[in-house]
Amino acid sequence: MTPVLRKAKHSNDNEPEQPRETRTVRRLRAQLDEAQDIHQLAANPLLAAVRADRFRVSVTRSMWCFMACGLGFTATGVQAFLAGHLGPSDPMWWGAWLVEPAFAGILITLLRWEAQMLSQGLAVDDGPVVWLKRVLLGATLVTNVWSSLRPPDGKVNAGMVFLHLVIPLVVFLLAEVMPVIQQRCNAARDKAAEIVPPATPAPQGGVTPAAPARTGLRLPGHLQGALEAKANEVRAQGRALTAQDVQDALNVPEEYAARIAAQLAA
């Protein structure tokens, strides 16, 4: 028995020892696994879409803040134009302070509605909408310039005339630029969220069934349904979907419709 035990012990001594991972190797391996997970998540198109949408919200909030500051300044010019030589004892002096906030409230409500429509891919270029914005901002511009040229004390200040001219113009341009910012940011978000679905093999017999139109764009359910119905109708006619077909189904700008048609064709 003793030789056998001695032989077994000798055979175990001859087996190679498995190398042990050092603490540095384990730490680097954990960092590598973490880097791979981060890269996989960062490459997800949905993450890029979320970042684009957050950027849009940040820019929009800043624009609203600066517009509110500008409208607060123009309120003084409107009040001076309406109140004239009246004093605080006259109710009209106090009522004049409510005119510009009322105009600003209408304008802000209109801009919020316009931004929401653009986020849904609907163009807002109707004449009454454009004219309402221009009338509101034009009235603010005229009243501010007039009040600075005809101050109650009779002393014209060139700096105040300049500010009462420039600030209403800046507010007007902000009102025109904000829908453009919304539209471009939404287009960037939708482009980042586009995911090309994997190709499906054709069934036996060489006939490919009609597939529903999936754009990869974030469209409301009723708009997606209308687009799918139009795509199936065009497919039944044996032709490719065009930008005009997309505009017939959805009330979207030509550039947006062309991008949807190009993606569906791809």
From TrEMBL:
- Lineage of the source organism? Bacteria, Bacillati, Actinomycetota, Actinomycetes, Pseudonocardiales
Question: Which UniProt keywords are present, listed alphabetically?
Answer: Membrane, Transmembrane, Transmembrane helix
Transmembrane intervals = 64-86, 92-111, 131-149, 161-181
Q: Where is this region: Disordered?
A: 1-23
Please note every region of biased composition (Basic and acidic residues): 10-23
What's this protein's name? DUF2637 domain-containing protein
Signal peptide range: none
Q: Which domain of life is it from?
A: Bacteria
Q: Which organism is it from?
A: Lentzea flava
Could you list the residue ranges forming a coiled coil in this record? none
